Amino acid sequence: MTGLPSGVYRAIATDGRVSTCDGNEFITRNVVISESTLSVSNFRVIENIPEVSEGTCKNYPEPSGTIDWLATTGGYSNDIFFSISSSVRRTTAYNGFNIELIGPDGSNVDLTGNSNLFGLPTQPSLERPGFTYRFRNLPSGEYTLTITENVTGTLIPCQEVFFFTVEEFLPIQYDGETVFETDVCTGAVDGGITASAIGGVPYIVNGIPTYEFQWTYTPTDPTAATQIFYGETVDPAYPGTYCLRIIDQNSHSYCSCDPAGANQVTIEVDDVVEPIATEGNLADPNNVGSLVKSLPPDCTGGGLNGKIGIQVTGGQLPRSINWYIEDPRYLNDPVSPGYRPLTEYDNRTSLDNLLPGNYKVIISSQSLTGCANTTNYTYYEEIIQVSPNRELYIMNGPFVDEDLCVGQQGRLTIDIFDNNDGNLSFYYNDILIPSSDVVRLSDRSWSVAIVNAVETADFRVVNEEGCWITTEVNRGIGEPNFEYTSPNYEASSLILAREEVTFKNTSTDPYVKSEWLFGDNSPPELVPTLVDSVITVRHTYGISGTYFATLRIYNDIECSEEITIPISVGKGYNIMVPNVFTPNKDLVNDYFRPLFSGFSNMTFTVYDFRGNVIYNEFKEEADINNIKGFSIDGWDGNFAPYSPYYIYTAKGLLLDGETEVERSGTFILIK
Length: 671
Hints:
The chain is mainly β. It folds into six domains: 38-166, Immunoglobulin-like (Sandwich), CATH 2.60.40; 173-270, Immunoglobulin-like (Sandwich), CATH 2.60.40; 277-367, no CATH class; 392-473, Immunoglobulins (Immunoglobulin-like, Sandwich); 482-569, Immunoglobulins (Immunoglobulin-like, Sandwich); 574-669, Immunoglobulin-like (Sandwich), CATH 2.60.40.1220.
């Protein structure tokens, strides 16, 4: 039988007997007749990419646009693998296949060399269908693979034409923005800077191609350190230059700032407005060609001609400039705590005739930027120090004694640094003080007699080189006064023991500090004076009694005035007496006496155990209208007769002038 179409056939053979008889029937196996087929199967491409060392910046080569078959063996090529599937039915013996490959340049690829074909390429391949062929080191491009059955005679060969493409290795490139501008309110790029790249073999994360990004940030400020960032976005991004390394999954990378690489890119963040900055504007006398921001007073100005000179750059215009000098009396200033405003220098960049000290400049923008917070584009502050004259300056003082404070002749002490370390001349109220009235206490300290004291005078010091410095000596001081209260005192005019008492200084100016003595042998408390507020002082008295609280105020040359006010706590008096007496001259408990407060007078008596008087003492306030407090001297234990114990009585009249209080008890004497 010939000319049958494709299908599944079987034959049934029977003899001549009818089906009712015992005839025989034979059925053949299925016979499949199908069309002849020839195809390429299991085709795949393997990339040949050289390894890259850790940290090395190596990108893929730029495409040349031509095919160089000899250069492909060095990397960045592809190997292809495929098999041949065949269902050709021939009666003749199997003669293999002819394989032909046409490259991207339209020419036949030489498959006879070992560089491209691993197998038996020289003659028609006699490998059976299913054998895997490998063509090596193919450059990128479009290829045509033709497989032809090798037949003889008049047979028509089966043929398969297979087209495939070898992808090109594209270099990694940065294709994002390269110039950004900062926001005037934040000083950084709004939303940060985000990298964008193409080429290479990106990672696939959640179906999205991406790369590893590494940023190297060099700030515009040359004093700031370089920083490293990772990730697609840098936020916040501040002014400066950003070098970017883009890495793909083959460890190849593009480095935007690599001078040896191709397609260099500079990614910059520019300031819309430069930050406010200052530079010196005064010639440095010790370094020719240099400019400084301040100069100390010189020898011709008496320590009063210091200078500040600056140049201001940047900032959102227009600007205002305000100056302050350090002053502890202004600790609560809301604008610049601890600094006193110098309004006479507002909006100036040059300041003259300055005393040594710390000066603050505040530069601020007057424009309405709409920023929620201040930035270095709209606000700037700096401390500039005017140093003392290094040839001659006052280290400490001057301070005066009590006689000079009250207008009598007295002495003034002062610490002076003199670079010449020679003798000094002193002038008070423009009158030269005789050398006989000057005593050098140490290499820095001097004591000067003042015989013509006045309320206010200039005190001038001159060294042997004629350098001079002056300061003011002002005896003026305010009148001390204070108020006190407590929660219970507000309600009932009575202060309870162990209740916090609040003291308020109501003294008049001038004074620079105050000292509180609470009258209960607790340590004194020194408080600086503030111009714009009063520092609240608090104290707690542990037991009942009358305490003589003293407020002492000082001016800047240590003259002082004080006031003492009795404070009644609890029942207003107390008496405390020890029960052991040790008169052994160790300066501890050498005198037996009561400690008391709230009395206008006190009688103290000591008896032996038989009732004989051994010691008696009476003391009282010197002026009942000016209560200062007093104390008993006490018994020193001399001429003490033998007694197993001793008896004391303490009896006194309270400050009200009516109530008498008596306390008695026993004690022992130990020697």
